[in-house]
Automatic annotation (TrEMBL):
<dbReference type="GO" id="GO:0016020">
    <property type="term" value="C:membrane"/>
</dbReference>
<dbReference type="InterPro" id="IPR058838">
    <property type="entry name" value="SH3_actinomycetes"/>
</dbReference>
<feature type="domain" description="CBS">
    <location>
        <begin position="282"/>
        <end position="348"/>
    </location>
</feature>
<feature type="domain" description="CBS">
    <location>
        <begin position="351"/>
        <end position="409"/>
    </location>
</feature>
<dbReference type="GO" id="GO:0015095">
    <property type="term" value="F:magnesium ion transmembrane transporter activity"/>
</dbReference>
<protein>
    <submittedName>
        <fullName>Mg/Co/Ni transporter MgtE (Contains CBS domain)</fullName>
    </submittedName>
</protein>
<feature type="region of interest" description="Disordered">
    <location>
        <begin position="404"/>
        <end position="426"/>
    </location>
</feature>
<keyword id="KW-0129">CBS domain</keyword>
<dbReference type="InterPro" id="IPR006669">
    <property type="entry name" value="MgtE_transporter"/>
</dbReference>
<dbReference type="InterPro" id="IPR006668">
    <property type="entry name" value="Mg_transptr_MgtE_intracell_dom"/>
</dbReference>
<dbReference type="InterPro" id="IPR000644">
    <property type="entry name" value="CBS_dom"/>
</dbReference>
<dbReference type="Pfam" id="PF03448">
    <property type="entry name" value="MgtE_N"/>
</dbReference>
<dbReference type="Pfam" id="PF26205">
    <property type="entry name" value="SH3_actinomycetes"/>
</dbReference>
<dbReference type="InterPro" id="IPR046342">
    <property type="entry name" value="CBS_dom_sf"/>
</dbReference>
<dbReference type="InterPro" id="IPR038076">
    <property type="entry name" value="MgtE_N_sf"/>
</dbReference>
<dbReference type="Pfam" id="PF00571">
    <property type="entry name" value="CBS"/>
</dbReference>
Length: 426
């Protein structure tokens, strides 16, 4: 194996995994160690890699030919795509050891910030060193960092409830919300709720939108109600409405009352529409501009970073007022058309209105059919007075067309018939 003799595992989080042909198969999410009955340090048996579609698989350490800070390379052989499940007496290093409160043999208390695995001359990998930061009572000073042998640290062999979250959050901070949501599903409930509570409101809102409904409700319930309301305010109104729909009506009312009125009003409106209709799946905050706005103004608007690609794919044109429900709906302009027109041209001169908008009562099956027929990324939704009240985008359709548990890792498709049904891939 062409690799450094010692590797600190937190530095591997997110590193790409490549097959022998140089094709990326996933990214490292953790290392799996096997506890031993003697006092010897735990043996590393493999890595956990996350593949596309959020599937996490086990990579035997014997299959890995190279490990470095930029890439993990696999050797030849068939890749076992069976979903990883931790076995008895196994330890997920980052999930279970990072932030663990421990004590050095000198008596100094501290917390684990990283763990190193090291390869012996015989080719066996084991956890050998631990990076521990001292606890200090001085708020303005970080404790000294010790890198010590495994057997000099007490408290590593027993799972405790007193672990913090700072170092784990540092490992997870660069993940996309969908990947972070997937990582949270791997944590024990108490640990998951602790990490979720430590996220800022905007980040937690993004992550909640990527979790199964059951996990969303459990995390929200673990927050105090004022914090839960703050997080709901940061969510898109349609996502917040979907989450509130999973709660009993009295709890919905309490949280809506705690939200700022300007944030709660569009959510209340969405909750009034029947399930499975355009009104229930639409976003009430599409990009809306008046007909006298210029192409340049429209392009600047859709460049705003907080807009999702589906929402930014088109501009809807309406008379004032420009917040939903708007004045009379006039039509829409796709961003590709904006790129082809002179910047000074007015939207009113290039607006397209030859496709009938959706009504709030249009069923999901009809929405899907029409979007597929016209190759639309988003479609307007109007009320009986032809006022724009929202837009249905392709991600809304996918979210509500897939099975309710599609985000749940436990509900993923079963492995192919070529999988051998074991937890190892060697």
């Amino acid at each position: 194996m062409s690799t450094p003799n010692r590797v600190y595992i937190a530095r591997l989080a997110g590193v790409a995994v490549f097959d022998p042909n140089g094709d990326q198969v996933g990214r490292v999410r953790d290392a799996v160690a096997r506890m031993r009955p003697t006092q010897r340090p735990p043996e590393i048996v493999g890595l956990v890699a996350e593949m596309p579609m959020r599937r996490r698989i086990f990579l035997s350490i014997n299959r890995i030919t190279s490990i470095d800070p930029d890439a993990v390379v696999l050797g030849s052989g068939t890749l076992n795509l069976r979903r990883f499940e931790k076995r008895p007496n196994e330890l997920l290093v980052l999930q279970e050891l990072l932030d663990r409160r421990v004590q050095l043999d000198t008596g100094q208390a501290g917390s684990v910030v990283d763990v190193a695995m090291e390869c012996s001359r015989g080719g066996e990998w084991a956890l050998t060193r631990v990076a521990v930061r001292e606890q200090t009572s001085r708020l303005t000073r970080r404790g000294h960092l010790h890198q010590v042998e495994w057997d000099r640290v007490r408290g590593l062999g027993v799972v405790g409830d007193n672990r913090g979250t700072a170092n784990l959050l540092a490992v997870l901070e660069d993940m996309r919300p969908a990947d972070l949501a997937n990582a949270l599903q791997d944590l024990p409930d108490a640990r998951r709720n602790e990490v979720a509570a430590a996220l800022d409101d905007e980040r937690l809102a993004d992550v909640l939108s990527e979790l199964p409904e059951r996990d969303q409700v459990e995390i929200l319930a673990a927050l105090d109600r004022e914090r839960a309301a703050d997080v709901l305010e940061e969510m898109d109104p349609d996502d917040a409405a979907d989450l509130l729909n999973e709660l009993p009506p009295p709890e919905q009312d309490v949280l809506l009352d705690l939200m700022e009125p300007d944030e709660a009003d569009p959510v209340r409106q969405l909750l009034r529409y029947a399930s499975g209709t355009a009104g229930s799946v639409m976003t009430s905050e599409p990009v809306i501009l008046p007909p006298d706005a210029t192409v340049a103004e429209a392009l600047a608007r859709i460049r705003e970073v907080q807009l999702s690609p589906a929402v930014a794919a088109q501009v809807f044109v309406a008379r004032a007022p420009l917040t939903t429900p708007t004045g009379r709906y006039l039509g829409m302009v796709h961003f590709q058309r904006l790129l082809r027109e002179p910047p000074a041209d007015l939207l009113g001169g290039i607006v397209v209105n030859d496709i009938d908008p959706l009504r709030t009562s249009t069923p999901l099956t009809e929405i899907t059919r029409r979007m597929a027929t016209y190759d639309m990324v988003g479609m307007p939704v109007v009320d009986r007075n032809n006022r724009l009240v929202g837009a249905v985008t392709v991600d809304d359709v996918l979210d509500h067309s897939l099975p309710r548990d599609w985000r749940d890792r436990d509900a993923a498709p079963t492995p192919s018939a070529t999988d051998d049904g074991t937890g190892d891939d060697d």
